[in-house]
Amino acid sequence: MTTQPFNPDAHCSVVIVGGGQAGLSMSYYLKARGIDHVVLEKHTVTHTWREQRWDAFCLVTPNWQCALPGYPYQGDDPHGFMKKDEIIAYLDGFIRHVDAPVREGVAVSRISKRAQGGYLVQTSDGAFNADQVVVASGGYHTPIVPRLAERLPASIVQVQSADYRSASALPAGAVLVVGSGQSGAQIAEDLHLAGRTVYLAVGEAPRCARFYRGRDVVDWLADMKYYDMPVEAHPLREGVRDNTNHYVTGRDGGRDIDLRKFATEGMELYGALTDYADGHLRFAPNLVECLNDADDTYNRINASIDKFITQQGIEAPVGGPYRPVWQPARERESLDLAASGISTIIWCIGFRPDFSWVDLPVFNGRGYPGHVRGVTPEVGLYFLGLPWLHTWGSGRFSGVARDAEHLAGIIAVKAQADARAA
């Protein structure tokens, strides 16, 4: 990594905002094309992986999918799942490999168009005039917390999923985890395995099998070309970008996360958290619906694998649908907070994008940028690293390289046209 000297009001052909895997991947391809650029990172490069993951965190995708540009996984366990320290080591190697021109500790406060063309990038340490800009700061910025959190007793410790580290770091007592997406389900599992009493407010997240018919489900889906499907070919089209990720885990070599099984072991499952009043938490009576919908997705994915195996004439162990191991006796809509012994609530209900600093008319009513594979209607402005920017892997180690290379080609064409016109 090359630390760039900062010259206020300097000119740069391309400014990349964000020093995560997306921004560094973009730098890799611009360097290969000899295009002048700088990466601006308000913290330190890849800080999210270091500072916003719990101690027992591991990848939920197999190691072979770690395919950052020019730096594929080289270890001896391609079908394993890297733990947090291994992920950081992998990223450290990638950082050295790219040697990007990075300016750390520089926050971008505004991006706007310049009357004479190009963009003005204002930062905490001066301004840049840029011909083109790549926003690679991700799409998970502001944690979602319901307003009811303001009314909870001051004695309740409230923690965001990004700030959770371990069961031992929390106060004694039971823990309520709100949300059952990837983070919520895995954090609930981490607490459960540590012997904590866990209450889980289940949401609408789907789930999938870890292994099915003798292989990791990811391997089957790769063979089925699911990870090559562009967003415009997906049945949901752009709506897939709003989908919650399926919950599954790579922990201890990988396994399903079965909330019903957790319930048989003492985890308390409720529907979605809706309110807090008179000392009681209120829940929607939708636990059965949420569990059934998650299982339906699980079985639907497995059925698609069954169909593929049959069509291809592949020999594989016999499969079959998941059969529930537990059913709620009834929907519980209220919980006495004091009587429950809950001392901590962990909010795991997602994040909202915050691109308020991008002062350009490219956003829809939900604050999400309009684009086609990262190319916005504003010529020379691009987004990279967002979920389903182009394919399932766009925001992940597996697919960000393909998107970055694509944008680098477009950036190069514009740079060449600008040079001819100058």
Could you describe the 3D structure shown?
The chain is an alpha/beta fold and 422 residues long. It folds into 2 domains: 2-141 and 353-421, FAD/NAD(P)-binding domain (3-Layer(bba) Sandwich); 143-347, FAD/NAD(P)-binding domain (3-Layer(bba) Sandwich), CATH 3.50.50. The protein is 26% helix and 21% strand. The protein is built from 9 helices and 22 strands. It has helices at residues 21-32, 47-51, 84-98, 182-193, 217-223, 259-264, 287-312, 337-340, 400-421; strands at residues 2-3, 10-17, 37-41, 67-68, 71-72, 101-104, 108-113, 119-123, 126-135, 142-143, 157-160, 174-178, 198-201, 211-212, 215-216, 268-270, 273-277, 280-283, 334-336, 342-347, 351-352, 381-383. The strands form 6 sheets. Strands 1, 2, 3, 6, 7, 8, 9 and 22 form an 8-stranded mixed sheet that branches. Strands 11-20-12-13-16 form a 5-stranded parallel sheet. The chain has a 3-stranded antiparallel sheet with strand order 17-18-19. Strand 14 (211-212) and strand 15 form a beta hairpin. The mean pLDDT is 94.
